[in-house]
Amino acid sequence: MMHMVQSKFIYLWTLIGAVGLQGCGQTHGLSENEPVPYGPVPTATQLNWHEMEMYCLIHFTPTTFQDKEWGYGDAPADLFNPEHFDADQVAEAAKSAGFKGLITVAKHHDGYCLWPTKTTDYNISQSPWQDGRGDMVKEFMEAAHHHGLQFGVYCSAWDRNHPEYGNEKYAEAYREQLRELYSNYGTLFTSWHDGANGGDGYYGGADEMRKIDRETYYGWEDKVWPITRELQPGAVVFSDVGPDVRWIGNEKGIAPETSWATFTPVGPDGGKAAPGHIDNRFLGTGQRDGKFWIPAECDVPLRPGWFYHASQDQQVKTPDELFAIYIQSVGRGAAFNLGLAPMPSGTLHPADVAALQGFGRKLSETFGRNLADGASFEASNIRSRNNRQFGPDNLLDTSRYTYWSTDDEVTAPELTVDLDGETTFDIIRLRENIKLGQRLDSVHVAMWDNNAWVPLASATSIGANRLIRLEQPVTAQRLRLRLFAPVAVALSDFGLFKEADAAVTTAAPADSGVSRANWRITASGADSSALRKAIDGRVETFWLSGEGKLPQHLTIDMREQQTVDGFGYLPRQDGNNAGMISRYRLESSIDGITWQAVAEGEFSNIVANPIEQHIRFTKPVSARYLRFTAIAVANATGARAAVSIAELTAYD
C-alpha cells in the first residue's frame, strides 16, 4: 500500500476535476530531504476541512411546523412562516461554541426549497415570510460570513413532494437545484449529501411508494460530482461514501477508537458504491490500506432529534456531553457536525444557545494553553543528520505542518519529553503532518514515576488529530513516547491539557410519563413476562416478537381511565436495528371493545438515530386501553417480520 498516490488518477469515483488535487500534486514543493508521502494524501480542500474541525447543520423547513423528523412532502407551502427568523442569532450561537462553519439544509426530504428555485413551485416564494420575496439560504450564508464562518449547503436527493421523483425529469431537476445553489451563494466549503433515497411520499398527490436504483438514478459519478467540481472546486463532497468525506456510520457523533482517514468505498454487492448504496462495515474504522483519503465526519443533533420539538426542550446536550463528543470525533481524526434546530419562530431556543456558549467556554478554557510549552525534547533520531528542519521543537509551534521526522530506516523511534516543572494534565494531543499521509500505526506514552517508566496511554490512527483523554488527571515532569510506523514518522504536534469544568448545565430529566407499575400488556402469541421488558424502565432490555405477519398489535391496559396527550416508543438500544418499527398506528379505548384512532404515521430516520419516538396527540385522550400497532418494520422485506420494543410510555 506504500505509494498509492498515483492510484487516484485512475479511480473514477474521485475523478472529475479533483484528480490533480487528490493525486501527486501534494508532493510539489517538498524540500530535498523530506520524507516521501505515504499512501493517499489529502487534497487542498480536504486540508481546509480538517483544519475546520467543527461545523453545524441547520434543519429548518415546514417539517419544523409539523413537529416531525421527516416531512411527507404534503405540507402546504405557506405553512412555513417564521415570524421572528434571525439567521444572525443562529450563526452567533454557533460561533460562540467554536464552530467554524454552517451548513444550511436548503432542501430536506419533504422537497421544500428554502431559496426561490426555478425547478419547483414548492419553495420559499410561496411562503408568507417576507411576502414571498425572501431567500433563507442567502440569509444563512450572509450570517455565516458576517461571523467569520464558512458556508455549505445540503440539498436532499430524495424529494417526497416532486411529482416526477423516480424518473429522469426529476433527476435533472435535482441537478439543476445543485447548479443554482453552487452558483448563487458564494464559495462553499462543502456540498453535503446523505443516503436517504426513495420510499413513500406525497409525490404531487400520488401518495405512494417509489423506489429508485441508488447506484445509477442520480448519475453521481458522471453527472452530479462533475457539477460540484466545476462550480465549487473548493468544496469537499460529503456522503456515506465520500468521495471526499465519509459518514462515520452512526448519528451519535462518535468515531471508533481506531478510525483511519483512508478508505475504499465498495457497494454492498462488491461493485460500485454510491450514496445509500455501500458496504458499511468499514465506515467507522476506515481501512489502514484504504486506497483513498476519505476521512470521517461525525454528525449528531444538539437535541435528540434533528428538527425542533418542544417536547425535547429539556433534553439539550450539556457542555460536558458536547465536550465528550468532541473528544471522540475531532479527537479521533474526524470532524464534528452538530445539528441545530430553530424553533418555528425562527430562532434557537435559549437552552440551545446556553449549551453552545457553555461548550465554547469549556473548549477555550481547556485548549487555550498548551501545558507542554517550555518542554525540552530528546529524540532517538532526527532526520537528515539532525537537521533542525525536522527537529522535535516543531512539535510546540502552532503549525500543523512543521514536524519532527526520522530517517527512512528509523520507524520505531523514541521521544523523551522533559516538562517545565511538574505538570498536571488529563488530555494528550498528537498530530501528524497529513500532507505526508497517515503514517503512524500506534503511539505509546509512559511517565517517569518512582525511578521507572510507567505506561500511561496509547493510541492508534493518529492522523490529523488525536486526543487521548485519561481516566483521571496525572502529574508528571518526564514523559516518553514510543512511535511505530511502516515508514519514517512525521509528528507535527504534542500537547498536554487539563479539562476545564463546564460553565453551565442545561439539561434536565425528561418527563418520565404516566406510571406503568400496574400496566398489563398483551400481544397475540407473546409471553407476558417477556412483554414486561417493553415497560420495565430499563433501556438496555427489549422485547422481540417472533417473526409474524404484519401488522402486529400490542394492547396496553392501564388498569384505570386516564388522560394522556402523548405516547413514546423507544427502539432497542443494543446497536442492532432488527425489528425497529418504521410505521405505526395508535388507538385508544374506554372498554377494550370500541377503538378510536389517535395517531398514525412513520418513525423517520429511526435506524440511524434510534431515539425515543414521541407521538404528540392533537388533543388529550381519555382512555383505559391503548393499542399500538406495528404496520411496517425498518429494513424488513416482505410481509413478515419480528417487532422489537425497548420501552413504551404514555405522557399526561
List the SSEs and their pairings:
Blueprint: H1 19-22, H2 44-52, E1 54-58, H3 62-66, H4 87-96, E2 101-107, H5 136-146, E3 150-155, H6 168-184, E4 188-192, E5 199-201, E6 208-210, H7 220-231, E7 236-238, E8 246-247, E9 262-263, E10 292-293, E11 296-301, H8 319-329, E12 335-340, H9 350-367, E13 376-379, H10 383-386, E14 404-405, E15 414-432, E16 442-449, E17 452-460, E18 466-484, E19 490-497, E20 520-523, H11 528-531, E21 543-544, E22 548-549, E23 552-570, E24 581-589, E25 596-602, E26 613-633, E27 640-641, E28 644-645, E29 647-651
Parallel strand pairs: 1-2, 1-12, 2-3, 3-4, 4-7, 8-11, 11-12
Antiparallel strand pairs: 5-6, 9-10, 13-15, 14-19, 15-18, 15-19, 16-17, 16-18, 20-23, 21-28, 22-27, 23-26, 23-29, 24-25, 24-26
Helix pairs in contact: 4-5, 4-9, 6-7, 8-9
Structural class: alpha+beta
The average pLDDT is 92
CATH superfamily of the largest domain: Glycosidases
How much helix is in the residues?
10-25%
The main pleated sheet reads as: 8 strands, parallel
Based on the structure given, which CATH architecture of the largest domain is correct? Answer: Alpha-Beta Barrel
Strand content: 25-35%
Return Rg in Å: 26 Å
What brief labels describe this structure?
8-stranded parallel β-sheet; Jelly Rolls; 29% strand; globular; disordered N terminus; TIM Barrel; 652 residues; alpha+beta
